[in-house]
Amino acid sequence: MRANCWLGKGTVDVLDVPEPRILNNHDAIIRITRTAICGSDLHLFNGFIPTMKKGDILGHEFMGEVVEVGREVKNLAVGDRVVVPFPIACGQCNACHDGAYSVCENSNPNAGLAEKILGHAPAGIFGYSHMLGGYPGGQAEYARVPFADVGPVKVPAGMDDEQVLFLSDILPTGYMGAEMCDISPGDVVAVWGAGPVGQFAIASAFLLGAERVIAIDRLPYRLQMAQEKSGAEPVNYAESDVREELLELTGGRGPDACIDAVGLEAHHSSPPAYAYDRAKQMTHLESDRPFALRQAIRNCRNGGTVSVIGVYGGFVDKFPMGSLMNRSLTLRAGQCHVQRYTKPLLERIQAGQLDPSFVITHRMGLDDAPSAFETFLNKEDECVKVVLTP
Amino acid sequence: MSTRLPHDDGQSRRSDSVERPGDSERRDLGERLSQGLSDQGAQRLGQQDGLGQDARSDPDGRFAQDRSADHDVPGGRSSPSGRRGQASRPGRPGAEFLRTALGWFSLGLGATEISAPRSLARTLGVHDSATNRSVLRLFGVREVAAGVVVFVSRRPERALWGRVAGDVLDLSALGLALSRYRFHPRSATRLSVATAAVVGCTVLDVIAARKQAAMTEAERRTAGSRHPAHATARATIRRSPAELYEAWHDFERLPRFMYHLDSVRVVDGHSHWKAKGPAGTRVEWDAEVVEDRPDSLIAWRSVNGSQIDNAGCVRFVPAPGDRGTEVHISLDYNAPGGPAAVAVAKLLGEEPGQQIADDLRRFKQLMEVGEIVRSEGSPAGARASNQLHQRPAQPLG
Ligand SMILES: NC(=O)c1ccc[n+]([C@@H]2O[C@H](COP(=O)([O-])OP(=O)(O)OC[C@H]3O[C@@H](n4cnc5c(N)ncnc54)[C@H](O)[C@@H]3O)[C@@H](O)[C@H]2O)c1
Ligand SMILES: [Zn+2]
Ligand SMILES: [Zn+2]
């Protein structure tokens, strides 16, 4: 089959690889009908996530049709259409029982590796490094899906792929980012990053009752999308001073909650500040560039909440701990516990409260994956989200 | 040369004085073991703290290490009774360290005396004459011999007393030189310093010899010459203690998740174990259950004459708040092949600590999801050695 493989920092290519087969009794094999490229894939592409190996199949946002099931699979049958959550979760351990699926205790066979780097191990994730399991991803024609009874969501007849594809990751992720803010009526929420994840965080903050949402980015077309599709107030950090703008927009209080939907590859509008972290990153003195996170913490109102859904891989420098501590902030974070949100969000989509397909700007074939990565990485051609069809 | 001391080791673990959940249970086991338990198994404990200083019941001393670690077994932390046992044997913990340190000192000094008598003579402040040089060389040979003997002797305390005699010889030579050089203040000062140093050495040699003499045969055998490994692992499993106890008690099925085991056969009370040892070696042993508390604890150990001495214990403690059961495993064994094999095994990721952690991960998977979870990068499932040699995340083909 054809699959988009990571071949090293900055290189992916679509190669012929063997077709997956059942390895565990709880597996299902899925013929992929739609798959997407995520901002998280860019961190892999740019070499910021350790323990990648040449030949790894990328992709953790995919859906398709069940073509084979393992002996123990009870909820799925051949022919079912499903969307697959990106974290692999067993449904049986204490973490899964608590709904913390992205830290499932059983789905990561390389937990020992992750423990060395992270202290304790998170769940396995499709196509997302060996420390997170060494599972092939879904930018391919077929994929093996472990714990098929736990993750995959059946797609009701009549809904098309593009309406539900993002239940695999970015819609629940944006939603969880907003949910972690414990929004109460009257709250103003600021969202750093107006990428696909940021777009859904903004939409979800409104769904959860935010009075106003401020979108911060430097790409006018993305800010415009946030404004037009969800009603956010844009702040372009390349053109204006974020702190000034936030103070102005909140009467000097600062936003009640701040969401970091940028992650470890943040840009900075000030060249010296950017150069500082970039240099440290290149010399491995820090692995992540936390501009957005620093700014979110410093600008959040006293006693407010900072919700981190942008991905970080290792260590950050100049973390404003004093600001966090002295001003009684709450910091929350996580890879999305997708399985927790798929049902309620599917219902919202069905009820017409939400149409996630608005973020799609590019539709391409699987074989175009390498150029799609470039387009998405460089934000060319007003790219927000690329969907691939195998 | 190892300076790893079982008792020092124990001490550092023992410094942990906070009472933890399960401590009383561990103490319980420790005490029962030290009270002589009941049977010959306990007899063979030999060196068990509080059980007695003599190793008569453990003639070849092969169990001394396992046992002294044994009351640590559940959870790897010692019980207060162990601490008491330690305190009742003053002075001995340092014996091995002192012995090896002195041995190395002798080798170093002897080598200098042989290879650089000239500069040594100058340092001592005696004439750099041919006679003095050959005397120094002779002393060097004696020193090296004394050092070697300390390491290889089966009765190190005798070797150490031999050193004391050598020290006396050194001192008389220095005394002679002192009287000859007493009108050369520079030389006299240097010689006095050297004399003071040798007096210091003599004192240490005497202490070491006395400490060694106080060490039992068994202790000596297990110190240094064998390389006991101690490994612990723990995990919380969302199943009842009874289910987990039952699954573990089915010894013949342990190889399902203990990958280094080839097979376990249970034949009237005893079990026969075949395993892959470190670095491709194969080992077999017979084991017996020494403690069996339904739904809470299983402790086993290899019987006399086994190729590999080992003892293990698994405890099942209800986790707070309906989270299932905390499983604590502890293993002690003398690795076949000694320290080199352990070092090689560590490089290959097969170190006992990792092995047992992987075993427990797989046990948890079996108990919670019913199978061992595999990925294309790690098709065998959780296994430390594979983590370093991942397949690419592509279907196996
Ligand atoms: N927690 C999760 O489960 C989860 C799931 C999916 C994605 N993510 C992460 O979310 C983040 C965003 O993903 P995406 O798909 O939207 O990626 P993306 O690259 O399309 O979007 C990132 C956006 O952040 C903007 N940005 C960069 N620096 C900024 C700064 N200093 N201030 C404000 N905005 C800045 C960029 O211009 C871009 O529009 C990534 O880190 C991704 O890994 C997390
Ligand atoms: Zn993603
Ligand atoms: Zn789980």
UniProtKB/TrEMBL annotation, chain A:
Entry keyword set: Metal-binding, Oxidoreductase, Zinc
Domain (Alcohol dehydrogenase-like N-terminal) ranges: 25-153
The Alcohol dehydrogenase-like C-terminal domain covers: 196-265
Q: Which SUPFAM superfamilies match?
A: GroES-like (SSF50129), NAD(P)-binding Rossmann-fold domains (SSF51735)
The molecular function GO annotations come to:
oxidoreductase activity; zinc ion binding
Q: Which cofactor does it need?
A: Zn(2+)
> InterPro entries in the record, alphabetically?
ADH-like_C (IPR013149), ADH-like_N (IPR013154), ADH_Zn_CS (IPR002328), GroES-like_sf (IPR011032), NAD(P)-bd_dom_sf (IPR036291)
Q: Where is the signal peptide?
A: none
Q: What family does this chain come from, according to its entry?
A: Belongs to the zinc-containing alcohol dehydrogenase family.
Q: What is this protein called?
A: Glutathione-dependent formaldehyde dehydrogenase
Taxonomic lineage per UniProt?
Bacteria, Bacillati, Actinomycetota, Actinomycetes, Frankiales
